[in-house]
Amino acid sequence: MEVIVKENYDKMSRLAAKIIAEVVREKPRAVLGLATGSTPMGTYKELIRLHKEEGLDFSQVVTFNLDEYIGLPPEHEQSYHYFMKENFFDHINIPPGNIHLPPGMVENLLEACRQYEQDIKDAGGIDIQLLGIGVNGHIAFNEPGSSLGSRTRVKTLDNNTIQNNSRFFERIEDVPKYAITMGIGTVMNSQRLLLLATGVNKAHAIAITVEGPITALVPATIVQLHRQATLVVDRQAAAELKCSYRDSPHDLSEAVAYIKRQKGKKS
Fold this sequence. Notes:
Elements lengths: L1 E5 L2 H18 L4 E4 L6 H14 L7 E4 L1 E3 L10 H8 L11 E2 L8 H14 L5 E4 L21 E4 L2 H7 L12 E4 L2 H5 L4 E5 L5 H9 L17 E6 L17 H15 L1
């Protein structure tokens, strides 16, 4: 697991976008797992800039979002369908048929969950999954106590999550109580994880995720076991980490340059 601490939110977002852009450039038909919420908005803004100013091409990219509220139609301003459309999809050249989000308005939810898993499999699996983290350590809508091997399913939202998300609604009573979400096992099947966190309110969750024991009570701790997980956080979110972590991404060229310098010293 690689932990990168950036000075502020903007630098964190630019690095996250750079990592995703590298995946897309290397594999034009990359399968991206996407997240919603305030944390990734800066990343989406930078990806849009890269598309418009530097030609980053999304024409073959396939996307799968982590979750969606149950009971909100796609056109509802607080639905994740609406969020992704307004903040990302409408500003890049991705074909609508390549976009996948869990359906929040179908009656056969069990079949919808099964089909979502099958769609991910049919697409070849997720190449890089973008994640946020809740103050209680949840990833997607996998609340504390979620099975670490879980698959896409319906989840009842934790009171803490409902309270935190109420800022997006007129009244707390309007916040949906249920969501359809990728499971932790689904997330862990991704080839690469990219978890972002910003702000002092996420510092405790990040400290436990990075340095604490792996536990279902803090679902994000499972990322410690992933073969290629990168955490990019700002200094506020890193405030409770006990160890020192890099302030720039690991770069193979740095290692090669170091070897050359060492060889130069011997000669």
